[in-house]
Specification:
Distance between the termini: 63 Å
Shape: extended
Strand order of the largest sheet: 10-11-12-14-13
Largest sheet: 5 strands, mixed, barrel
Helix content: 10-25%
């Protein structure tokens, strides 16, 4: 019997090796270029005594291509850095499409500038920063928020959010609750201290984040998403948008703070 089981195991291993060889011929391994992204804001000019005009570009996403030893942890939140030799990517606007059609009115949201750091032609170094200048900038120290705490967050501010999965819907799934979807929407829920439910509807591009179909009720932490505004159609519901720097972490509860 042992010999038969050993023979069967060897045959299964050989079949698995053959299958993997066939897969590699049909779909060879991709050549992936490593990268990571950080979100930066303007540092006020010397002598500034009030925040800059909010209509001016103040935020940028910097993509570090083939970083050669650089890691996200090398860039601490709230610290000042000088980045030289960056290139600019084409800019784009994102439409809010997870509202009822009659209220959407083709609203456009301006995204941060998209910049590129190339190891062969770019350089960086840390610089000193004055707290008074940081206070005038767009930088806000973040904590992980519960959904009901989004009332205190300004529109277009980046947040980290924790909650439980309520549902996840994708384009082509039809119309539901008066919402016409052109982007996927992950809906989260959490209860406040009085037990009242609050909801967050996070729109995201499925092509960017891949297939996201989490189980209802599972915990999720969403990092670096953009808070838009409370929904006009549903009570106790906030609208948010996922950008290129957003991260979805499923099944890992996170400590919270305001």
């Amino acid at each position: 019997r042992n010999a038969l089981e050993s023979y069967a195991a060897e045959r299964r291993a050989e079949a698995a090796d053959t299958l993997m060889q066939e897969v590699e011929k049909v779909q060879p391994a991709r050549q992936v270029r490593p990268f990571f992204r950080i979100l930066v804001c303007d540092y006020p000019v010397q002598g500034a005594s009030q925040p800059e005009d909010s209509s001016a570009p103040q935020l940028a996403t910097v993509t570090f291509w083939a970083p050669r030893g650089l890691e996200p942890k090398d860039f601490c939140e709230g610290q000042r850095y000088l980045l030289s030799g960056l290139t600019v990517s084409p800019q784009r606007a994102v439409a809010v499409s997870d509202e009822p059609r009659q209220q959407q009115q083709q609203q456009q949201i301006k995204t941060p500038l998209r910049l590129n750091f190339n190891a062969s032609g770019s350089s960086w170094r840390p610089m000193s920063a004055e707290q008074s200048a940081i206070d005038l900038s767009e930088f806000r120290e973040r904590g992980v928020l519960h959904i009901d705490e989004l009332w205190q967050v300004d529109s277009d501010q980046e947040v980290d959010l924790v909650g439980s999965v309520h549902s996840c819907r994708h384009p082509g799934a039809g119309q539901d609750d008066g919402m016409v979807l052109t982007r996927s929407v992950l809906r989260l829920e959490s209860a406040d201290e009085h037990g009242h439910k609050h909801y967050a509807a996070i729109s995201f591009n499925a092509e960017t984040f891949g297939s996201i179909n989490p189980e209802a009720g599972s915990p999720v932490t969403v990092r670096n998403c953009i808070c838009l505004k409370p929904s006009n159609a549903e009570t106790c519901t906030f609208l948010l948008r996922a950008d290129d720097t957003t991260e979805f972490v499923f099944g890992v509860p996170s400590s919270t703070g305001t």
